Amino acid sequence: MERTRILVVEDNIDEASYLRDALTMLDYTVAGTVLSGEEALLRISQDPPPDLILMDILLEGAMDGIEAAEKIHAESSIPIIYLTAHDEEELLQRARMTEPFGFLLKPFSNHELHSTIEIALYKHMMEKKLKESEERYSSIFNATTDALFLTDRNMKVIDANQQACRMYGYTRKELLGSDFVELTAPAWRDRFRQHLQEVLDTRS
């Protein structure tokens, strides 16, 4: 089985050396150690890209770790774990906005490093599977020649496929949040609403 490739972005030489040795001991492949966010952006464009990035939050230079993470996310879906010796809430809140896959507060143990990496990799794998599932659903949902609607328990439209939009003469945006029953013929609405409610009640 191919080992996970991890890029280390750390401007402290001693800490970068420790991480390189720790990752090797934990049976990961070090995809490189770089000192700046700019170098990290260059490295992820190379083939093959790393599977995960350990990113120090407070990097020296024009771009700190949070800015680097924002730019990396704009170009790829590589999961990032932040490394920091600072626990100021304002800094951590800014970092959270980039949706990292974990935080490691320095100093940390090899056990903490390993468990945080494994949790991040698992979370990334599950998110990838969910995205693929949603893409398959969207493809099937929109490929059918039937008009399909998804509604909540209050019969408000939460999704509509392309055929439904064409058939009813609305855009998807216009249909979202509308009352599904109101899309039927006026003479049928009361009975239709009652029937739908009966169906929902039997499934409660």
Describe, in plain words, how this protein is organized in 3D.
The structure is a single chain. Helix content is 49%, strand content 16%. The protein is built from 8 helices and 7 strands, in the order βαβαβαβαβαββααα. Strand 4 (80-84), helix 4 and strand 5 form a beta-alpha-beta unit. Helix 2 packs parallel to helix 3. The two termini are 47 Å apart. The mean pLDDT is 89.
Write the layout of secondary structure elements.
Layout: E1 5-9, H1 13-25, E2 29-34, H2 37-44, E3 52-56, H3 65-75, E4 80-84, H4 89-96, E5 102-105, H5 110-143, E6 149-151, E7 157-160, H6 162-168, H7 172-175, H8 189-202
Parallel strand pairs: 1-2, 1-3, 3-4, 4-5
Antiparallel strand pairs: 6-7
Helix pairs in contact: 2-3
The global form is: elongated
Give the helix tally: 8
> What structural class should be given to the helix and strand makeup?
alpha/beta
Average pLDDT number: 89
Oligomeric state of this protein: single chain
Number of strands: 7
Major β-sheet profile: 5 strands, parallel
Keywords:
5-stranded parallel beta sheet, single chain, two-stranded antiparallel sheet, 8 helices, alpha/beta, 49% helix
